[in-house]
Amino acid sequence: MSGDESAPKRGPEPSGVDLARVALRAAREQARARGDAAQQRKQARRGGGLRSGAGADGRDPLALGAAINRLLTERGWEAPAAVGGVMGRWPQIVGEDVAKHCVPERYDEEERALIVRCDSTAWATNLRLLAPTLVARLNEDLGQGTVRLIKVLGPGGPPRRYGPLRAPGSTGPGDTYG
């Protein structure tokens, strides 16, 4: 074995046009790398690469309805907002007769309960009997499980008046003193 055989065999050295092509390719790659770095620096100065232009991006103005829907979704307010819409359509959901005497007051999101106040005990009893049907109808409209129960409140008594003619320890107008 001679020393020439252990050395790797190489093709002819590039010369002339081939050498110019290799040099041009290397120069272009270096220029591209410098350009990419400069572009990244520019974007960092501009605010993280967000560019304004003809294409849509997250900073574009939204229509009011779309902006409200986005806010409701981001904050997790879909169910309370939907129930609020039901409160506006209460007469169509329960009927005109019931709506005249029973008014939804609020929605308790933790218990998923709709609190309804009635103007008489008779209507409160009637609404308690209708509650399972109303819960099913509300869940059809709002999505299953949005309303689990309807809490029915009877009419509120007259406001308590504290004055000089009030008996000490009295609980109000229905108090029979023993």
What is this structure's SSE topology?
Layout (H helix, E strand, L loop, with lengths): L2 H4 L10 H30 L17 H12 L2 H11 L1 H5 L1 H6 E7 L4 E6 L2 H22 L6 E5 L25
Parallel strand pairs: 2-3
Antiparallel strand pairs: 1-2
Oligomer description: single chain
Low-confidence stretches: none
SSE string: HHHHHHEEHE
Number of strands: 3
Number of helices: 7
Shape: elongated
The chain-level mean pLDDT equals 75
Q: If you compute it from the alpha carbons, what radius of gyration comes out, rounded to the nearest whole angstrom?
A: 38 Å
How do the strands of the widest beta sheet line up side by side?
Answer: 1-2-3
Helix content: 40-55%
* Largest pleated sheet: 3 strands, mixed
| Structural class by sheet pairing and helices | mainly alpha
Strand content: 5-15%
What report would you give on this structure?
- By secondary structure, the protein is mainly alpha-helical.
- It has helices at 3-6, 17-46, 64-75, 78-88, 90-94, 96-101, 121-142, and strands at 102-108, 113-118, 149-153.
- The protein has a three-stranded mixed sheet with strand order 1-2-3.
- Strand 1 and strand 2 (113-118) form a beta hairpin.
